[in-house]
Amino acid sequence: LMRPLQGCRGRGVVVGTVTLCLAAGWALQTPGGISLVVPQPNINATVAQNILLSVEYSCQGVATIEWKHVSSWGTTSIAEWRSGNYVNISTVYKDRVTAFENGSIQLRNVGMRDAGYYFVTVTEEHGTNAYGTIIVNVYEIIYEDLHFVAVLFAFLAAVSAILICFMWLCNKSLHVFQKKTTHKLTASTTEEIELETIEC
């Protein structure tokens, strides 16, 4: 009853290339300065749901966190902040995003346009970077399909009711027929007994 968002193939190749570049940059970064963990790299959501893009980072100094959204509609900057400082949230997401100190963000009331890749970059004050990616799939409930299921269910319920009534009528008719047959048999048996008595 739910259908996933369909994206453009050409843009998917671009997004894939960006992902590979970020992964290569993450692999080549200097060790020990900063770490970033993405516990849930894949999120499935339905329209109007709230989702948490959860990450956890650690670093030696002050870190800058930046979130971007990449989809078939383009790249959008979501939010950027330094740990402990004011959060700069894009006007597109102003009323829909909550930022957390650990680097996570919550996105409220998601729509089909919110599907895609979410990139988070954590930069230490000395210039060391860590990258994370979360893929969000947004599904839409198709009310026409639900309507079809409701109509089908009502039709099956009506057919079942008709069959039950038919079976009840057949059962009632069978009882009436059995009573008549029993009455005739009783009457004929009584007549035979009377005849036998007369003959004797």
TrEMBL record:
Membrane-spanning ranges: 12-29, 146-170
Keywords noted in UniProt: Glycoprotein, Membrane, Signal, Transmembrane, Transmembrane helix
Boundaries of every Immunoglobulin domain copy: 40-139
Residues forming coiled coils: none
Highest taxon, organism lineage: Eukaryota
Predominant location: membrane
Location(s), subcellular: Membrane
GO BP, sorted A to Z: filopodium assembly; positive regulation of excitatory synapse assembly
Entries under Pfam families matching the protein: V-set (PF07686)
Record keyword Glycoprotein present: yes
The protein's name in its UniProt record: VSTM5 protein
Species: Mystacornis crossleyi
Taxonomic classification: Eukaryota, Metazoa, Chordata, Craniata, Vertebrata
